[in-house]
Amino acid sequence: MKNITFKKPRSRKEMVNYLKKHFRYDTMSSWNCVTSYARCVKIHKLDFPSQEIKKRAYDFFYIGEAYIYARRLMREFAERYDYRWQMDFNGRSGGYLVLLQGGRKDSGYKSECLDCGQLNYTSVLKCVDDKCLKCGENSRVKLKSPIFSVFTRPGKGVDMEEDFEDWDTDSLRSRTSLVWDFNRTVDKCIKAFVDFVSSHVVEEKEVLCTKTTRVAIKKVA
Fold it and tell me: Which positions ≥6 away from 188 have C-beta within 8 Å?
């Protein structure tokens, strides 16, 4: 799969064409009729060093390690926009990366336990009321900084009915930079996956797992 473009759009005409002609995909299910800028990342659409490696790539479909670096790139993309813009996989087999809207908000936690890490919605008064309800230790302290929770709005489309002709130049340039950044990030995610597949093989390995369960023991008189 080749890059969308090798030259970043500069003129109004180039930016308008870049946005209008960009591939789009559903942000949720097709019946929602809500779309956004997207890229197809299905394995058979990607470029691999050889057909042998491309065939091997299907073995990595459910191997989480193959997506670790790509997920980091996606998180860094969201951080650059304070999570107002995010990207995630969509499609029946996760074959598309889609640009999504979202944000972050204060989780409401006001204190934490230094011993067990339990978070609490109540604050801590000086020298009193610092007992953790989970572990019982007097180690609950006020949070030094807020803890934010991230949310996504997959039901909200992006520029679905825009023709961009009436946009002012600054807004047009801002949107073009966003979509350009999205595409560059997708390219890096694809490269990370291809590089991982090229340098690894999948082997079956038996893993013994133990679990804790409850059993009935006859009471000794």
Answer: 70, 73
Token couple for 215: 């059993």
Q: What pLDDT does residue 147 have?
A: 85
Both 45 and 91 in one domain: the answer is yes
Asked whether residue 26 falls in the same domain as residue 119, the answer is no
Euclidean distance between the first and final Cα of the chain, in Å? 74
Whole-angstrom CA distances from 154 to 3, 28, 33, 132 are 25, 6, 12, 37
Cα angle for residues 32, 38, 41 (degrees, 5° grid): 115
Surface-to-core class of residue 38, CB atoms within 10 Å of its CB (0-12 exposed, 13-18 middle, 19+ buried): buried
Q: In the numeric block, which tokens belong to residue 64?
A: 């989480």
**Calpha distance 147→110 (Å, rounded):** 9
Residues 24 and 74 in one domain: yes
Predicted confidence (pLDDT) per residue in 63-73, tens digit: 999 999 999 99
pLDDT average, residue stretch 22-39: 92
Q: Residues 133, 99: one domain?
A: no
pLDDT at 221 over 80: no
Domain that holds residue 120: 108-146
User: pLDDT tier at 126 (50, 70, 90 boundaries)?
Assistant: low
Q: Flag whether 209 is in a domain.
A: no
pLDDT at 98 over 70: yes
Q: Is residue 67 part of a domain?
A: yes
